[in-house]
Specification:
Largest sheet: none
Shape: globular
Radius of gyration: 17 Å
Oligomer: single chain
Number of helices: 4
Length: 72
């Protein structure tokens, strides 16, 4: 019975992560409207506040390729 409870606890921890504001906007077919994201995206950068793992770079049209961004 103890193994059954442990399995349930692990399943609860593996909940899907929440989408960032930029990911939500891209899913709706538009660009993010948050001021911090707009400023970062105009510079071809990721908004680190909203996208801590640079999730928004894959949606930017003028963004450097992901391989180059990771190397810097």
């Amino acid at each position: 019975m103890g193994g059954l409870l442990a399995g349930s606890a692990l399943a609860a921890e593996a909940a899907p992560r929440k989408l960032t504001c930029c990911e939500k906007a891209a899913a709706e077919g538009r660009e993010c409207r948050n001021k911090c994201c707009i400023i970062a995206h105009k510079q071809g950068k990721s908004c680190e506040k909203c996208n801590p793992h640079k999730e928004d770079l894959k949606f930017l049209k003028n963004a450097p390729p992901a391989d180059n961004a990771a190397a810097k």
